[in-house]
Predict the 3D structure of the following.
Amino acid sequence: MPKILVIDDEELVCKALRRHLTMDGHAIFVAENGHTGLKILKKEDIDIVLTELNMPKMDGIEVLRHIKKLSPKTEVIIIAAHGNMKTVLESFKAGAFDFITKPINYEELRLSIRRALEKQAQESLGEEKDPQIKTMERLHRTLYDNAPVLLFVIDTSGKILDVNKRVENVLGYHAKDLLEKHISLIIKKNHRVAFRDFMRERFNRAAPAAGIELEILNKRGNPILTNLELTPVSDSNWGTVALVHLSDATERSALLQQLIQSERLKAVGEMASGIAHNINNILTIVLGHIRLIQSRPEDKQVLQDAIKIISKSAWDGAQLVRKLQSFSRVHRPLERLVPVDINYIVRESIEFTKLRWKDEAQFHGVHYNIKCHSLTGAVLVPGNASELREVFVNIINNAIDAMPEGGELSFSTKLNGNKVLVSVADSGCGINEKHCKKLFEPFFTTKYGKGTGLGLSTVLAVLTEHKGTIKVKSVVGKGSKFIIKLPVLSSQGRDTMFATANLPQARHCAPTIPIDGTKAANVLVIDDEEGICNIIAKFLRSTGHSVSTALTGKEGIRIFKSGQFDLVLCDLTMPDMSGWEVARAIHNLESQRVHKTPIVIFTGWGDTFDPAMLAKTGVKMVISKPLDNNQLLDMVGKAAFKRLLS
């Protein structure tokens, strides 16, 4: 039975330690000061001494020195209410086995006692180590155990060989519950593949030393966002192993997201100024033709031509607003990837930035030549369109910054096995090799006084989430080329993704044949803007449909209860109820019906929403204002046809 001596001037501490350690099967001796403790040590063959650091007359380090003279094999664990690195180092120089701070974590103390007893057993079987080596080993172990991060030692298969004390404290596991287990035990399920790939690459030295962000789980199953780094090392006993270093990334991630959003808003602001310029041009055209109609009301040809131009200008304005909305849309989780044509994204990004590389440039007398090669046909990748668009918008803006006097920007795409390569090359000032290595690091920028240095780090983050990569080749004075590689959807993957992407998207449809009285639909329009209700009602009635209108959500629900409707068109934002709330109320009213009334939400805030929200509220489609008449007729015609079939 191991003998343990507790030396502490606090009687309650001695009693608590005696109670806990006796339960573990140890023989416990207690002393209220160092002198009494040394007397006991002379009489008894003590294996381990637990001594308080701060005691009157004789402190813990002085007691430690006396113990090492009297009984060199006795291991001493220092216990302190507080301690700094100087005190810790002094303790280990004097021969302490461990240093534990109060309040005492008894699991931590038991682990330390167990290790001290194991060390004594090993030394009794082998040669005595050099005291200086033993001191350094203890120091390294203590620094390892008390590091402010989670540390694991794993082998090449991922099996856990060792953990530090912080793992036990933070995750709630005992070390014995983790040893010999695979490290994926603590990694969130949907992050395990990413970790496995990263681990293999790091063991092969193929991945960069920078870590990855992933979520781990404590014993209760609660997630913790961490930054994981893995450093392979060679050990004479274990062979090739790795030190896994996990630090809390919650605050860092939140700060980075705020800064990324700030960078995005800055880009939106720049785009908005160009859009304002274009909208002013559109308004000039519209107002000019209105004045022309007013001055020549009898001229039917002038009237017809003016209406066509005003209509086209209005749609041009709507497209400009949608561009701004699409670019500023907040990040959406990438679990909802859909097939995206990367060629279309590239062309759209060029169009998005046209305000800068053409309109603004021409105003300043600068010319940019944009060239596109091999951008034919659809090349589908699994992705999020707005996120991928942001990648190319960032790269284009950087290229323009690199060519302040004008220049050439060329794009090309080509297939390489199951990957697509997108190259973006500029004829700008180029980047030196030293800066190229840091180009994708957060906050690194060569544009001193301009920007936050987050643009390309955002690009890298988005591409990483899309399982893609980006490389840069640059020659100072000649220009730079960015090469983006993304996985291409196979025909099977494309079909599966189309089937599971359940987000309805409004489409511009061909005009439907006007419906006669027997096929007319009964439509309910709900919008707090009376003018919008009236114009939709007039248009649909002119094509033979029956329309009821409501200026509030509550009024719309009341009207819905009193009639039979084939379609409900509802605005998203209204003073008394949102469109979602109206849809949910109607959905609940029809909970027992087999054929439910389709509900379409229209809004000026864009047409991309969470599929879960659509499913929960019974909404079939979300469309953007201004409404397209052909699209509106198509929806109403389908609703009437569905009623006839039912």
Notes: Residues 76 and 512 are 90 Å apart (CA to CA). The first strand starts at residue 3 and ends at 7. The two ends are 85 Å apart (CA to CA).
